[in-house]
Amino acid sequence: MEIQVEEAVVKLILHGGNTRKEAYKAIDYAEKYQFDQADKHLQMAQEQFQEGHIWQTKLVSIRDNETIAHPSFLLIHGQDHLMTAQAELQLAKRIIEQYRHQQKLEKRLTKLENQLA
């Protein structure tokens, strides 16, 4: 199946943006300690990133294409968009783990305070 470079670039941007959107939603839910929702949005972010990665692989597999040999600004932008989304997804996962840890500490602190009261 022959793909057009422009189509692949648009898919990189689309899925990169969707990855970032879902990762930030996951952080928002984690901030409220709603980890079921946070996990749901992390999963959605991961799926969007994987879709983008599929298009990245298709793009890289194009051979003998002048556009790839001399990448355009749009092509570089699309690849950068997906790469940034991957970094933000990884960071979101770490932030959410910190919120999980924070919630556990708050529960322990509350329990200790109740014992002293």
TrEMBL record:
Residues 82-115 form a coiled coil. The keyword Oxidoreductase does not apply. Binds 1 Mg(2+) ion per trimer. The active site is at H77. GO terms for biological process: phosphoenolpyruvate-dependent sugar phosphotransferase system. Keywords: Coiled coil, Magnesium, Metal-binding, Phosphotransferase system, Sugar transport, Transferase, Transport. InterPro entries: PTS_IIA_lac/cel, PTS_IIA_lac/cel_sf. This is PTS lactose/cellobiose transporter subunit IIA. It comes from Listeria farberi. The lineage of its organism: Bacteria, Bacillati, Bacillota, Bacilli, Bacillales.
